Amino acid sequence: MEINPAKGPILQSQDLAALAEGFAIEGPVQAVQPLGNGNVNATYLVTDAGDRRYVLQRLNRQVFQQPELVMANLLVLARHGQARLSSGGLEAGRRWLLPQPLPTLGGKADLEAAESYCLRQGKEVWRMLTFVDQARSFDTVQNIAHATEVGRALGTFHWLIHDLPLDKLADTLEGFHITPGYLSNYLQLLQIGPSDHCNDSKYCIEFVAARQHRVGMLEQAKQQGLLIQRPIHGDPKVNNVMIDVVSGQAVALVDLDTVKPGLVHYDIGDCLRSGCNPAGEEYTSLDDVCFDLDLCSAMLSGYLPLARPFLTPVDIEYLYDAIWLITFELGLRFFSDYLAGNIYFKCQHAHHNLDRALGQFHLLESIEARENKIRTIVNNLCR
Length: 383
Description:
- By secondary structure, the chain is of the alpha+beta class.
- The chain folds into 2 domains: 129 residues, Phosphorylase Kinase, domain 1 (2-Layer Sandwich), CATH 3.30.200; 238 residues, Aminoglycoside 3'-phosphotransferase, Chain: A, domain 2.
- The chain has 12 helices and 13 strands.
- Helix 3 runs antiparallel to helix 7.
- It is globular and about 55 Å long.
């Protein structure tokens, strides 16, 4: 059996089918195939004999060290979100789906317990979710209409969860999106690592050094009481937005493992960082990487009408800073993982994370060059 140190064993299809049938699905497994290209968990599409589809995932234990807390959050989210959806409030004619956890066969007796939704195989933990049918995702924004729907997806999700009490959510990833913590880790890696860096690494080192004084701006605003914590998605990239294949409307925001208390700015910044770069994280040429202002305007036009009622004027003031910081943060995380030996993100080759870091830093330069225009877009939409 082949082993991927960051992800655990790579199983054969018959092993995956046996795992899938350990959950309360409606029929025997017909097929299992890889799904998506996420950087953390191993994900598979399961089809049963009745052509019903499910999502089987192996949680990355290096990232999610307490999987039962992840599942507890998903249960809280599913129940709160379904109650909000049942009370109405969505635009007429729109559908919105929240993936639901499925219990294991042995867990059906206690549907309130998070452990009932975890299937353990040695040190590995698996879970099953309902599949969002008649929808697909894209790695990059396809056009202006798609950009608007991506923004609307995040706005809908924030509308669903903004009143979810924070004490009901566990912090499953302590330090996640706390950029000063990532900087501290990076500086330690830089100190203990080799000194003979390649030219691309030297560029990244100089890039971080020139900007590291800004990394505390959101955390400082939080500590001063200017920004408050709310429930957040944590990873609302473009490819986590599901688009209805017929209507072209956003119908779900998936990959919910990172739902936790945090600043909505982390979500807004990450959504625009990923959505306004037509080249995507896995770019072909650095020359294609840029921050597209038209896509930015479209995404915010989709997001703000839904989120504006619970955003404060100070929240709005920090939107540009959020875009800047989350882009810097991801570049820093990619580069740190490269220096650490590629232990967090899935990689196709040894320099994959270095290439990703270069892409994010190039994108950040584009954002910096457009700062005034981005701020103008925000101000005009919030008048």
